[in-house]
Amino acid sequence: MFNSLSDRLTATFKNLRGKGRLSEADVDATIREIRRALLDADVALPVVRAFIGRIRERALSEEVSGALNPGQQVVKVVNDELVGILGGETRRLNYAKRPPTVIMLAGLQGAGKTTLAGKLAHWLKSEGHRPMLVAADLQRPNAVNQLEIVGERAGAFVYAPEPGNGVGDPVQVATDSLEVAKSKLHDVVIVDTAGRLGIDEELMQQAADIRTAVNPDEVLFVIDAMIGQDAVKTAEAFLEGVDFTGVVLSKLDGDSRGGAALSVAEVTGKPIMFASTGESMKEFEQFHPDRMADRILDMGDILTLIEQAEKNFDEKETAKLQKKVEAGEDFDLNDFLTQMSGLKKMGSMKKMLGMMPGMSQYKDQLENFDEREVDRVEAIVRSMTPAERTNPKILNGSRRSRIAKGAGTTVTAVNQLMERFTQAQKMMRGMTRGGGGMPGAGGGGGMPGMGGMPGMGSMPGGAPNRKKKASGKKKGRKGGQSGNPAKRAQQAQALEDKRAGKTKDPVGSAFGGVDLDGEEEFDMKNLPKGFGGMFPGGK
């Protein structure tokens, strides 16, 4: 959603790099571009004016002029202000002291309330709660039936005493649901209410009556993130009529410009609490203003990646693999399959890679990446016998031909996979000798199975682009020897160490040496502790 805004802001900040001092003209030019980027993103005009005013004031202050790197300080100022208009701090659900906690959903028809109710229930289950869904939308055709289907997908009980389609009293249904929740020991009640195509008095009155009847602990306003500046008017109307406590953004994975997300919190003063980022039940997350601001400015969202990895990777399997690597045993295809399974559970590979810092420059490769390639790689490995997975060295021509037929692919694809896997094994050995973090995935400095996938060769973590071969040799120097005597001595020592088996295989950067900020290469060792279970070189 924020791709266009992110591209515009990133391009604007590139003009500030390397400047030892920023003039007022530099600041004005930067602010002008930021204003245009925000207006193009359909951010509400009052929000743009307030945002730009605060940035200008801080950019011309001593905070920036006295900084060692004024350009980076301006980026920090913009980041801080983005966090501010997105809500400032992460707002978590308020749970009742005595269960059940009542969460009421409100919003226009078509905003995605019913689907989001199921996603919220699924998320609450993952947090250890026992949610119950209440079908209080009795006006929209088949709304009750839809909630029952969504509830089944989420694994949550649905209270639906009325058939809907214009039949039944939604206020009474919501009231009765509290006693049902207590009797069935559900600690969270999610009330799905009716919507309209537009704001009207009947809609607001019904929502207000339900609120009065159940006295909810949270009233979440569900808004379609794709409706642009209309989001502000709708939010203000619901704030006046229902007085919601938080906002949930649906359809954040859409291709609109993202103005709603950057406007609603600033205009209403209510925090954005959750965001729906896709079609599946798992594509729903708590909203963190600081992380979203980092994504917009192409700084990545490593913390969210870590949280997803912790939820989806089996701790026992990870610990088992770590012990295996530390003991000097080879990483085999059974381990590879386990790690692939963990990666698949984390969801879309495109989204996961998109959370990496500096990925805007690889936008085209990400768009061209085929998610099914992960399934094809898994199919190849599953077509092998247990003996072949444990000892890949026995894979001769006839075996590879059989595996290719079993996976419905070509021998070339099998050979490419095994080539990347061999690189992963070498990297593992190098990390063991070098004391690096235990990788949950690896291969050419990235995730196993991804290095040579179509469209990924030139991306961070991908296999080297074979069209660009660098021999490292200079003309007139046999064997690539340096003309510098000291360097020649160093090369000779390195060659001697290699023959003696003392050298370490290079681990490399998981980002393929991409210069993210124009000054220094991103180092995976700087990632938060625990991330090493997913990427090589981490702690």
From TrEMBL:
Residues engaged in binding GTP: 107-114, 192-196, 250-253
Name of the protein described by the UniProt record:
Signal recognition particle protein
Q: What does the entry's free-text domain comment contain? A: Composed of three domains: the N-terminal N domain, which is responsible for interactions with the ribosome, the central G domain, which binds GTP, and the C-terminal M domain, which binds the RNA and the signal sequence of the RNC.
Q: Which reaction does it catalyse?
A: GTP + H2O = GDP + phosphate + H(+)
Gene3D superfamilies in the cross-refs: P-loop containing nucleotide triphosphate hydrolases, Signal recognition particle SRP54, nucleotide-binding domain, Signal recognition particle, SRP54 subunit, M-domain
Per its UniProt record, what Pfam families does this chain match?
A: SRP54, SRP54_N, SRP_SPB
Instruction: Tell me where in or outside the cell this protein is found.
Output: Cytoplasm
In the record, the note on similarity to other proteins reads: Belongs to the GTP-binding SRP family. SRP54 subfamily.
Segments forming domain SRP54-type proteins GTP-binding: 271-284
Q: Which SUPFAM superfamilies does the protein's record reference?
A: P-loop containing nucleoside triphosphate hydrolases, Signal peptide-binding domain
- UniProt keyword annotation of Acetylation present: no
Compositional bias of kind Gly residues: 432-460, 530-539
Region of interest called Disordered, as start-end residue ranges on this chain? 431-539
Quaternary assembly: Part of the signal recognition particle protein translocation system, which is composed of SRP and FtsY.
Write down the superkingdom of origin: Bacteria
* Basic residues composition bias: residue spans: 465-478
Q: Which residues form a coiled coil?
A: none
The enzyme's E.C. designation: 3.6.5.4
What functional role does this protein have? Involved in targeting and insertion of nascent membrane proteins into the cytoplasmic membrane. Binds to the hydrophobic signal sequence of the ribosome-nascent chain (RNC) as it emerges from the ribosomes. The SRP-RNC complex is then targeted to the cytoplasmic membrane where it interacts with the SRP receptor FtsY.
Query: Matching PANTHER family, A to Z?
Result: SIGNAL RECOGNITION PARTICLE 54K PROTEIN SRP54, SIGNAL RECOGNITION PARTICLE SUBUNIT SRP54
Keywords linked to the UniProt accession: Cytoplasm, GTP-binding, Hydrolase, Nucleotide-binding, Ribonucleoprotein, RNA-binding, Signal recognition particle
Q: Where is the composition biased (Basic and acidic residues)?
A: 495-505
